[in-house]
From TrEMBL:
It is a multi-pass membrane protein. It is found in: Cell membrane. It comes from Fusibacter paucivorans. PANTHER family: FI19708P1-RELATED, SOLUTE CARRIER FAMILY 17. PROSITE patterns: MFS. InterPro entries: MFS, MFS_dom, MFS_Na/Anion_cotransporter, MFS_trans_sf. Signal peptide: none annotated. This is MFS transporter. SUPFAM superfamilies: MFS general substrate transporter (SSF103473). Residues 17-424 form the Major facilitator superfamily (MFS) profile domain. Keywords: Membrane, Transmembrane, Transmembrane helix, Transport. The lineage of its organism: Bacteria, Bacillati, Bacillota, Clostridia, Eubacteriales. The keyword Nucleotide-binding does not apply.
Amino acid sequence: MKNVVKLNKAPSYRFVIWIVLTIAYINIYMGMQVIATYATSIIEDLGVSNTAISFISNGTTIMLALFSLIGGAIAMKLGGAKRTMVIGTIMMLVAGIGFLAHPNTITQLVALRLLQGIGAGLVNTFALGIAPWFPAKERGIASGIETGLYGVGLAGITLILSYFSTLGLSWSSGIGTFLCIGSALCLILILLFYTDIEKKYGVSSVDELLETPKETTSGSNAADVENLPGSYGEMLHSKGFWILFIPIFAYCYLVYNLAFSIPAVIMELGWPASTVTAITSVTFVGTIIASPLGGIISDRVFKGRRAETVAIAYFISFLFMVLVVVVKGASVGTFSLMCMIAYSGVTLAAAPVWVLPASIFAPKFFAKGLGVMLFITNIAGVIGITISGVVQDATGSIMISYWITAGVALLGSIFALIFAKTYKK
């Protein structure tokens, strides 16, 4: 460990890291959507069922979750985050090459997606874990802009793959081309511009570089530094971990389930099919604005008290999920706005909810702790989608699972308030 030279302000190199990690983050989640985008073509070409497509998507998400969980531990074995991300990116690149070879069986498709999911998981913990690179007072905004671009990525992958189709590329060629180009770009950026913070500055967090680090965390939701868990055992005995468990669980449960259920709810409420697509498109536009806004509110309005922002965001989502169903006779514009706010409430929480783990884990344990949180939230998404699909098939209605999703939003809000009260300075 090199001698630490104290600085008056955070190094500008953090913005280089932010660009590299944000591109890697967007590439992961754009890549996760390729099967859903090409689902119809895959079903027709391979003769598989919708259930098989769902299984492939869930299997990839589980690999993403599992290797996000152990990514921090693997990084310690390999000698740092950079080497781990390089290996993960190469795996996604190899998966892309596999798709270019035109897989023609469900077994080949599953194998390639599992490889992609493993690679994505190895990168994911560090791509989303930008908190150590920014002072506490800047983390919400930095994370908010990064997660806000998630919405841009989801819209972008549809446009990119549609363009590939106009060029005459098959579904496998389209997926392979995207994965190869995206992964190659990320690999180059990581190799040329990324350096592990411990090797660059000899610290685990930028706050340790600053001459007055206490000022950067004043008023934030944080436990006493000396009491922060630095191992899995200490984490499991930490009150903060178990309180934050619910808001973290709620995040992907809500993100995945609302994306799945809102279009079905709109149709079940009697809106014409021609209107459903328009309302759905407007619904997801709000994510681009809401995520950065959540970061600004948590950093500037609440002065780093991010749990309060999460609680408000989840409650907004809960409230408007209720209004979407109970308000009768609304115009298309009003109904679209309610749907947009219901979904945007969740993404309003994106920045603060992913910065909060930095306040309950010791800096040296942050990557491992964040990996646990990513595992929890991605598994929650799989659980939620599974519940929604089973309940809808059994009852013929989306409403029961929709109300369960609303309940998760309310529960997430309550536990975020409990966290805020527990760690109020």
